[in-house]
Structure to design on (267 residues):
């Protein structure tokens, strides 16, 4: 009986060591962890570049090999982050995890879900919401730009999603790079409400696409303008109530009155 229990204990010990190792790499501050997190972010950016170029690469002979290679990377990253998490269920309930699962499905079934591949760029939004991207920037001037950066990422993500949608459903037939540029040109002109009218989407579907693009695009532009113009605040969680946004010179939390100890940029 004792000999039968040894493999299970060994396997459990291996899994525990693996999770501890991944937790240190994904959430640690040691030089090794910082290098790993930087490399992971670089790989994420490369995969996002691949997603942007997907509409132009889908007809190439090597596309499926690239697609499945990226699928392996995304699956490995998702599995590793799950193992590194102290609460897997909580992690899987987050919208960023839903995006990663959806992206993985489009990579595993590129033919069946070809018309949805333009949504892969949502991983850019998912990446911008990960705390690891901001953890090493400190609580000073760089972190103060977090909201503005996320507003820019939201706008860029929307532009590329709409461009992919327009290209897939309106310009795909034998258009290649020229069609993708036309789709991007239409998207930018519509979002900025320039309305040159030289490229117009046909039919009711085209008009509805333009309406949604204009309304959502204007909202994102307003959000970006607010993030740029609004007086800068620091992100510092109040020990009492958890409120994070405060004035740079705040002494007390405006929500609960608790005394704050916000570090200066030079600290």
């Amino acid at each position: 009986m004792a000999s039968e229990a040894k493999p299970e204990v060994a396997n459990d010990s291996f899994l525990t060591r693996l999770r501890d190792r991944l937790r240190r790499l994904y959430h640690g501050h040691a030089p090794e962890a910082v290098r790993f997190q930087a490399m992971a972010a670089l790989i994420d950016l490369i995969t996002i570049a691949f997603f942007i170029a997907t509409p132009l690469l889908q007809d190439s002979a090597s596309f499926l090999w690239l697609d499945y290679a990226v699928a392996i990377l995304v699956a490995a990253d998702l599995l590793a982050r799950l193992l590194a998490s102290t609460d897997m269920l909580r992690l899987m309930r987050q919208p960023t995890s839903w995006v990663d699962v959806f992206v993985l499905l489009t990579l595993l079934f590129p033919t069946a879900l070809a018309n949805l591949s333009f949504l892969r760029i949502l991983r850019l939004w998912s990446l911008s919401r990960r705390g690891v991207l901001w953890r090493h920037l400190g609580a000073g001037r760089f972190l103060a730009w977090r909201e503005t950066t996320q507003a820019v990422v939201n706008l860029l993500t929307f532009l590329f999603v709409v461009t992919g949608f327009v290209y897939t459903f309106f310009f795909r037939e034998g258009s290649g790079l020229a069609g993708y540029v036309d789709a991007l040109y239409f998207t930018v002109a519509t979002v900025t409400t320039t309305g040159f009218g030289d490229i117009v989407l046909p039919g009711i579907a085209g008009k509805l696409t333009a309406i949604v693009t204009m309304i959502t695009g204007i909202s994102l532009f307003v959000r970006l303008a607010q993030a740029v113009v609004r007086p800068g605040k620091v992100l510092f969680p109040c020990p009492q109530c958890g409120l994070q946004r405060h004035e740079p010179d705040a002494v007390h939390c405006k929500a609960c009155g608790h005394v704050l100890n916000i570090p200066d940029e030079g600290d």
